[in-house]
Amino acid sequence: MKDLFRLRTLFLLATGLAMNLSPLPLWAETAPPIPVTQGEAVTLTLKLINTGDAALKGVTVRCETATMPDWFVTEDVEAGVDLPVSNQPYVLVPFRFTLDKDAPIGEAEPMTLRIEDAEGAIWHKRFALDVQPRPKPEAFRLLQNYPNPFNPETWIPYELKAAANVQIRIYDPSGRLVRTLSLGHKQADFYTSRSEAAYWDGRNDTGERVSSGLYFYHLEAGSFSNVRKMLILK
To answer: Which of 192, 198, 200, 195 lies closest to 220, judged by CA?
Structure first.
């Protein structure tokens, strides 16, 4: 996790704020750009400290839509957390998102986080992302599926050091072909996230759910070939 910034002064005014003071930008400065990589799934961890005289309920963190770039693929907004006045020095609130693998390189993209409590009080924090080039794999690799064991669906990650036509065949323990996943022509890259890995819904080629047990998945990418095991538990 990347420690984005410490918001010690965020709640100096805390719950004494009138609702018409929203939005309330407490900082004019911007945090130093945060280095991220094209296609990276990022977790920024905020340390929120309530120094007011009343607890804050249901605090959430999200990106302001107006500052969200096109290559900001997903945003996972955590359920609201409560910030007590004391009892602990801070509360950690993760903010998760994924960058598109074609995000522009070398520009510090300014963005704004919106921090809001259940009463409607709003604070802002500016930050910037410094997008670095996405590295290329050094080898062909077939990785372990996840989750494993699974029911009923799973993802099969792999890496390609060069462009290739990719196909995954799934077999039962007797060697009978259960399902063929034809993934087409893929460029050299990491195919490890849920949005890019091969997906199997636990069905055979006729659309029927397969039974519990051990299965084998066989990746073919150009001249590369490899096999791994996976387990369905129902």
So the answer is: 198
What pLDDT sits at residue 225?
Answer: 98
Half-sphere exposure of 181 (CA within 13 A, CB side): 22
Give the mean pLDDT per block of 10 residues along the chain (234 residues). Answer: 36 26 37 79 76 76 82 71 65 79 80 83 81 90 96 96 97 96 95 91 95 97 97 92
Distance (Å, whole) CA 179 – CA 203: 7
Q: Which domain holds residue 11?
A: 2-132
Which position has the token pair 């372990």? 144
Is the domain of 148 the same as that of 175? yes
Radius of gyration of the chain (CA): 23
Q: What is the DSSP letter of 79?
A: P
φ, ψ for residue 83 (rounded to 5)? -115, 105
DSSP state of 173: T
Which residue shows structure tokens 């500016």? 126
Q: Are residues 29 and 101 in the same domain?
A: yes
Are 10 and 65 members of one domain?
yes
Which of 3, 1, 93 lies closest to 41 in space, CA to CA?
A: 1
Helix (H) or strand (E) holding 218: strand 213-221
